[in-house]
Amino acid sequence: MSTGQIAGGRLGRSRSREITCGGMILPYRIAWFTLFSRGNRSVAYMNKLLHGFLLLALLGLVGCSTIASYDQAAYEHATSAKAEALQLMDKGSTPYSQNSEKIDAVLLDMNKAYEYDKGRARNEKTTALWTALLNPEGKLFGGFIRYWKTRNELHPAYIDEKKKDISDAFDQIIQLEQGKQKQGTS
Q1: What is the Cα–Cα distance from 43 to 57, expressed in whole angstroms?
Q2: Is the dihedral of CA 13, 19, 20, 26 positive or negative?
Q3: What predicted TM-score, i.e. pTM, was given to this entire model?
Q4: pLDDT in tens, 146-159
């Protein structure tokens, strides 16, 4: 007998039958089957339908989440890193060597924030935003620092333009964190 067939004959003969499912014989109430059957739907189709309902019920009970919950420390890391980074960028018109200690301190704080967010479960979106912000080959803060180091001093118009882009990138991180659901709330 193949998978999905009724054991013991045709569907309408008895009130209780057995059904095979993956090689296992399972007791099956005909009344349930006839209640949900329409036309010539096969037992295999009904099994798929039942499994679908069970999966939806399980997902509803588990309350799955694809993103981390709100974290006050992550929010504070992002907001303070934004303020420090933008303040540092204002010094871009002065020589890089005069600001190297402050640059290192800001980069360290930003890397701490990145590592904190990276260590949180289901936080890939925020981690990706931090990665883009810190990438020295990119066009955000990491790229700004690399360009400053190669040029030594930057033009104020360039600094203002980059501050807008970098501020927007920080805002994305901050808004993503603000939009996360606080644990214990629905």
Answers
A1: 21
A2: negative
A3: 0.64
A4: 999 999 999 999 99
Q: Which residue has the tokens 């810190």?
A: 134
27's tokens: 């007791």
How many Å apart are CA 79 and CA 129, to the nearest integer?
14
- Predicted confidence at residue 18, as pLDDT, reads 56
Could you tell me the two tokens for 146?
């690399």
pLDDT band at 93 (very low <50, low <70, confident <90, very high): very high
Domain ranges within the chain, ordered by starting residue: 6-62, 72-179
Rounded to an integer, the average pLDDT of 74-87 is 97
The Cα–Cα gap between 159 and 155 comes to 6
The residue type of 125 is: K
Residue 83 pLDDT level (bands cut at 50, 70, 90): very high
Spatial strand order of the sheet with 6-7 comes to 6-7, 16-21, 24-29
Task: Examine the pLDDT at 25 and tell me if it is beyond 90.
Answer: no
CA angle 8, 37, 53 (to 5 degrees): 105
Tell me the two tokens of residue 185: 């709330």
- Listed as own residue / partner, the contacts of 93-101 with beta carbons closer than 8 Å and 24 or more positions apart are 93/153, 93/154, 93/155, 93/156, 93/159, 94/153, 95/152, 95/153, 96/148, 96/149, 96/151, 96/152, 96/153, 97/152
∠ CA 43-45-50, nearest 5°, is 90
